[in-house]
Design brief:
- The complex is a heterodimer.
- By secondary structure, chain A is mostly helical.
- Helices cover 67% and strands 0% of the residues of chain A.
- Chain B is mainly alpha-helical.
- Chain B contains nine helices and no strands.
- Chain B has helices spanning 2-5, 9-31, 34-51, 61-83, 103-122, 125-136, 141-148, 152-176, 187-190.
- In chain B, helix 3 crosses helix 4 and helix 7 (141-148) packs across helix 8 (152-176).
- The radius of gyration of chain B is 18 Å and the shape is globular.
- Classes of the chains: A mainly alpha, B mainly alpha.
Chain lengths: 61, 191
């Protein structure tokens, strides 16, 4: 049985998207989400560290 | 659409599923290469995902995607010009072997499609964009103008020039016979 995903490239019109393209797009979006989350977390951690230092300095005074 | 705009990833995935075929088709028409078209599509959806909150909904999502895809394709094409890569093989079949239709008719249609594809690809990018958006995606002059950030009359002029060029290229390829590529047409010849 031949389904759409297993149809070979040569049997597909060049303007017709391969169904795996949608998975590739999702994977790119997942990577983008993960990277954005990582950046957010590191920014939050940095902000927390800065606030801690400032708070400690103030409380010493 | 609203859910996607609020950042719902599943809703955005649904938008991707419903539009990726058209987006790929446009990307292929603009780049003329399967791999590049796939890259353009992926970049376009990442850009759209980043900017979805700013999407005001003045046009449909697919029209918005057309604009993003054209921009991504332009970026890819300018990068390609800098890298000067050449496609080594052209093994895309021109005949669809499915037996459910008359093979000779399908073959003729495929050859014609191949000629037109080649002629469209021979156009400079700014002319190719208007032909693809008008003749393949059925956008009006005003929509094309909005997409490309030009005036409707400029869109009409570009379309007219693009069609003149296409006619010249196809006539030449007719004169040279099937299977041979026509030499590029210069501006002064087309006007």
């Amino acid at each position: 049985m031949t389904n759409d995903a297993s149809r070979t490239l040569s049997r597909r019109a060049p303007t017709e998207a391969h169904p795996t393209l949608v998975w590739k797009v999702m994977a790119r979006l997942d990577r983008y989400d993960r990277r954005r989350q990582l950046i957010r977390r590191s920014l939050a951690a940095t902000a927390l560290a800065v606030l801690t230092v400032v708070f400690r300095r103030r409380s010493r005074k | 659409m609203e859910a996607a705009r609020r950042g719902d990833r599943d809703a955005f995935n649904e938008l991707v599923r419903s539009t990726y075929r058209d987006t790929y088709s446009l990307a292929y028409r603009l780049t003329g290469n399967r791999d590049e078209a796939a890259d353009v599509v992926q970049d376009a959806y990442v850009r759209a995902y980043r900017a979805i909150r700013r999407f005001r909904g003045d046009s449909s999502f697919s029209t918005w995607m057309y604009r993003i895809t054209s921009n991504c394709a332009s970026t890819h094409l300018s990068r390609r010009t800098r890298q000067r890569t050449e496609e080594l093989s052209n093994d895309a079949p021109i005949v669809d072997l499915s037996p459910d239709q008359d093979p000779s008719l399908r073959a003729e249609a495929a050859v014609l499609r191949h000629h037109i594809d080649r002629a469209v690809r021979s156009l400079p990018e700014r002319l190719r964009q208007v032909v693809v958006l008008r003749d393949l995606h059925d956008l009006t002059h005003n929509e094309i103008a909005a997409e490309l950030g030009i005036t409707p009359s400029a869109a009409k002029v570009r379309l007219h020039r693009a069609r003149q060029r296409l006619r010249a290229v196809l006539q030449r390829s007719d004169e040279l016979g099937a299977g041979q590529s026509a030499p590029p047409v210069r501006d002064e010849e087309a006007s």
